[in-house]
Amino acid sequence: MSQENTTTDANSKGGSTADFAFDESLVEWTVPAADWLRIHDKHFDGIGTSGFVFDAQNRVLLVQRAAHDSMPNLWEAPGGAVDAEDASVLHGCARELREEVGLVARRMKRLVTEGRSEERWSVFTNRSGTKIICGVGFEVEVEEGSVVLDENEHQAWVWAGEEEVRGERMGDGRGIKLTGMMMRRKLLEAFRLRREDGENVRANEVLMIYSCIFASKYSTESKAGSESSS
Which residues form the Nudix hydrolase domain (predicted)? Predict the structure, then answer.
């Protein structure tokens, strides 16, 4: 069973305090980016994060990159580079969510990979091709609040369902062309993991029902046997 932990960073970039829970499976990401790279003997030039946020209708938050930025007008999950000032990789992810979409992380739920191998992170280059970046994704539960974009980076946002992500088109016909296959694979893997959660919950509910039926039947039979013997 997963355990919950909490972490606080009173020195987060911008002077805000980052305070959120995280699943024990994410403990390796609770160190600064430089320490993570050293511990794992990785020679990447930095770590970039993506935060996968879902609403109550199981739709994921996507943001459209600004027309004047690299990969103009394409869609992605909010995220960005972990800074040297960030207390940990998780704090970097939480900060990027707050800066890009105005949402406050409440719980880091799990790692989201590309789903096609056991590799826990992706590798890509920066826009000039001069730096190699380690890309890591997390499903993040957030505090209740409204999406507020940083217009310097993004120009629109949507909540998209799995089939809308798969087809890169919203139900009303609007296109949501993604930044690339890496983002697409991570988004679909995030949906798969949530679907797997639901299947496990239903299996546990069925098991509980059968356990209750068995316990009730055993109690009734035991009572009947006791009465007949007396």
Answer: 44-183
What value does the mean pLDDT of the chain take? 88
pLDDT in tens, 89-140: 999 999 999 999 999 999 999 999 999 766 899 999 988 889 999 999 999 9
For CA atoms 207, 208, 213, 214, give the dihedral sign. Answer: positive
d(CA 94, CA 50): 10
Which residues are CB-neighbours of 230 under 8 A, at least 6 positions away? none
C-alpha of 213 from chain center: 37
Give dist(CA 20, CA 43) in Å, integer.
29
CATH number of 4-229: 3.90.79.10
- pLDDT for 179: 97
Q: What are the DSSP calls for 187-205, one per residue?
A: HHHHHHHHHHHHHHHHHHH
**Which residue ranges make up each domain of the chain?**
4-229
| Eight-class DSSP state of 88 | S
